[in-house]
């Protein structure tokens, strides 16, 4: 290499070295997804830990979540309430963060009127908790289906040592809401049947 070539290459080599030296660690959301993916194939029993009267019926049934389907960019978690296999939580990577959607099905596999609602993360969150404020499409769906009480929903998912939690909150006011169900990750249970609408 000539002296002129070396003079040209040196700054580029310096930039490359600097880039390697300042590469950020894995994001909080990457770590969160890795925690979910580490549970893939396992199922866990849980319980409602909040006291909203609206959840009394659910609290009296067997609750099982199953981390049933995982890829690099998506995790699907069916949530079984007694014999009701209509619900699946779907967490997906987006260009800006993570997205939570609720896939609701009828027993014949067809989509419920209220389905595919949720939201995107608005902050990095942590490796153990991500919050999902309601998105514009979901607000439009709720209003169209006379569920305007849900237009301020914020959902959250937690994965930490021994615990998985799903949470719904609405701010204080006439539509205030707090629902939280927690699952014991230290005691896996047998995987339940596939959710309605899944092929197996």
Number of domains: 1
* CATH class (first level) name: Mainly Beta
Name the helicity range.
Answer: 10-25%
Number of helical elements: 4
Helix-and-strand structural type: alpha+beta
Could you outline the blueprint of secondary structure elements for this entry?
Blueprint: H1 3-21, H2 28-37, E1 43-48, H3 56-59, E2 63-66, E3 69-70, E4 74-81, E5 84-93, E6 98-104, E7 117-120, E8 129-133, H4 136-144, E9 154-160, E10 163-170, E11 177-189
Structure notes:
The protein has 200 residues and is of the alpha+beta class. It has one domain: Lipocalin. It has helices spanning 3-21, 28-37, 56-59, 136-144; strands spanning 43-48, 63-66, 69-70, 74-81, 84-93, 98-104, 117-120, 129-133, 154-160, 163-170, 177-189. Strands 1, 2, 3, 4, 5, 6, 7, 8, 9, 10 and 11 form an 11-stranded antiparallel beta sheet that branches. β5 (84-93) and β6 form a beta hairpin. The termini are far apart. The model is unreliable at 1-25 (pLDDT under 50).
